[in-house]
Amino acid sequence: MSAPLPAIVPAARKATAAVIFLHGLGDTGHGWAEAFAGIRIPHVKYICPHAPTMPVSLNMRMSMPSWFDIYGLSPDANEDEAGIKRASENIKALIDQEVKNGIPSHRIILGGFSQGGALSLYTALTTQQKLAGVVALSCWLPLRKSFPQAAANSVNKDMHVLQCHGDADPLVPFMFGTQTAERMKSLINPANITFKSYRGLPHSACPEEMVDIKRFIEKQLPAIRDE
């Protein structure tokens, strides 16, 4: 179940903020680290952890990097509740590690793509760590029936969320994205949720989206004056 150390894009100068970004099913953190290196902001450290390898029910129990098991992609599919909660605790520990390294949690953005985006939303809504925001790409809110109870005393009620989704996504349908945004608006301050769609984009990212992500990070994690 153990995974290799995260791929890291260090800050160009003293790191006073961080982005922790979780890849999608079957992927690793390396590609996303390269993507963030292309939009890096000098005072921000980017951490792209790798999911442990496990058998995935959706893919005939083949072993691959996965944050938790996925049984199906339909809205009524059963979910791996224990696995999602366990993965979320691991991400909270990663946030704690950055806090120990000197970056306060309110200077940390959590994000992810697809399964990683789902885990980032769930973690932000259930953690006691106050975060700067969430970047949720081509994803959904897992264990959605556990909310709003799970988020009732969330410290992140006023966090900013950037949600992005391609309108030609064949894997995680665009409708899942819009429904997730609506659900999120009922759980946190709706004025702080931005949903962006990308015409013709399948289940992937695009340069326009990366520019939007960079702008969001710059806004939520501004440089500190004495840097």
From TrEMBL:
Q: Where in the cell is it found?
A: Cell membrane; Cytoplasm; Endoplasmic reticulum; Nucleus membrane
Q: Which reaction does it catalyse?
A: S-hexadecanoyl-L-cysteinyl-[protein] + H2O = L-cysteinyl-[protein] + hexadecanoate + H(+); a 1-(9Z-octadecenoyl)-2-acyl-sn-glycero-3-phosphocholine + H2O = a 2-acyl-sn-glycero-3-phosphocholine + (9Z)-octadecenoate + H(+); 1-hexadecanoyl-sn-glycero-3-phosphocholine + H2O = sn-glycerol 3-phosphocholine + hexadecanoate + H(+)
Q: Which UniProt keywords apply?
A: Acetylation, Cell membrane, Cytoplasm, Endoplasmic reticulum, Fatty acid metabolism, Hydrolase, Lipid metabolism, Membrane, Nucleus
Give every Phospholipase/carboxylesterase/thioesterase domain span. 6-220
Gene Ontology molecular function terms on file: carboxylic ester hydrolase activity; palmitoyl-(protein) hydrolase activity
Name the enzyme group at the top EC level: hydrolase
Q: Which InterPro entries match?
A: AB_hydrolase_fold, LYPA1-2/EST-like, PLipase/COase/thioEstase
KW Ligase (keyword) present:
no
Output the Gene Ontology cellular-component terms: endoplasmic reticulum; nuclear membrane; plasma membrane
Query: Its Enzyme Commission number?
Result: 3.1.2.22
Q: What is its main location?
A: membrane
Whether Nucleus counts among this entry's keywords is yes
Enumerate the Gene Ontology biological process terms.
fatty acid metabolic process
Regarding protein family, the annotation reads:
Belongs to the AB hydrolase superfamily. AB hydrolase 2 family.
* Function in brief: Acts as an acyl-protein thioesterase. Hydrolyzes fatty acids from S-acylated cysteine residues in proteins such as trimeric G alpha proteins or HRAS. Acts as a palmitoyl thioesterase that catalyzes depalmitoylation of proteins, such as ADRB2, KCNMA1 and SQSTM1. Acts as a negative regulator of autophagy by mediating palmitoylation of SQSTM1, decreasing affinity between SQSTM1 and ATG8 proteins and recruitment of ubiquitinated cargo proteins to autophagosomes. Acts as a lysophospholipase and hydrolyzes lysophosphatidylcholine (lyso-PC).
How does this protein assemble? Homodimer.
Identification of the protein by name: Acyl-protein thioesterase 1
